[in-house]
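Q:
Got a chain?
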Amino acid sequence: MKTLIVGIGALGGLIAARFRAAGLPVWLATRDTEQADKLRASGLRVTGMGGAVAVQATAIAPLDAYGADDKFELVFLATKAHDAIEAAPRLSLLLGPNATLLPIQNGGVPQMLGERLGSCVLGGLSNLGATMEEPGIYEQRNAGHLLIGELAGGESERTERIRRWVERAVAVRATRNLRGAVWSKLLVNCSVTTIGAIAGGTMREYMASPSGSELFNRTYDEALKTALATGAQPETMLVEPIPPGWRADGIASEERNTWITKVLTAYGDVTPSMLQDIRRGRRTEIEFINGYVVRMARQFGFDAPINAAIVETVHAITSGRLAPNPGLLAQVLQAPTHK
């Protein structure tokens, strides 16, 4: 299956390296010519979970260099969310007959692309913990997997065919409940990823403080309340998405603490992707993550004040008014509560 991977950052680089190591026909699309030249010279190296690999970065070019004559059967879209939306018109030119576009962004990106490009879009998301040490050098930080499924739900021959192809390189699972899976990933992104970005460290680090622990619980519970209000049924990923005895109040209990330990085992040592973006001066996906929760909550008649405060704090960090540090977590907790 002739495959193009668009975006060679932490996740795209990891997938590209493992596709190459598996000997699969894959082309790579970068942000610009400079990035393509650097990766071509350095190659791609992966360490960590899943085994170490080192491959050459051939068949690599900036996305703009691919044209209507370069038709692909599968296009992996591994860019940031805002770049995925902007690239959509061009990507439609690169899809051959009956080809599939597989976006693996956070939030509602697959649904947005489906509305623009139609049935060629297959939903996807990632539970792979990937860190880019520098361009071309990546570390896999967990034993996660990709998850794919039809936007409308249910099973399909296409989903199974692509699952069989992708699993030659990376772990992948199919789901009949993509909508629920998207929300399950959002729950993790809203709490684990974004709070880590604000604190400037991993979940395991910020959960060691009372403020970090309380903020995790309140953020997660707001997002979960919103998910259930939409009618979604969050799907089990690396951990159960609904804490045992959940009451939407974040009150600690022995059962919940056991559940948090499982979350820490799955995600606790991963450097948050949003923190990586902040450190590199890149635009974050905050509006597609916590911002999405805030907007959806309002649609259903209630507020998500903690998530809203998190959005404001991340904007303050990216604008240079604040810097990531654990002391910000207590400030976020002071967000006014609305009914």
Summary: The chain has a mean pLDDT of 92. DSSP finds 13 helices and twelve strands in the chain. The two ends are 52 Å apart (CA to CA). The longest helix spans residues 178-199.
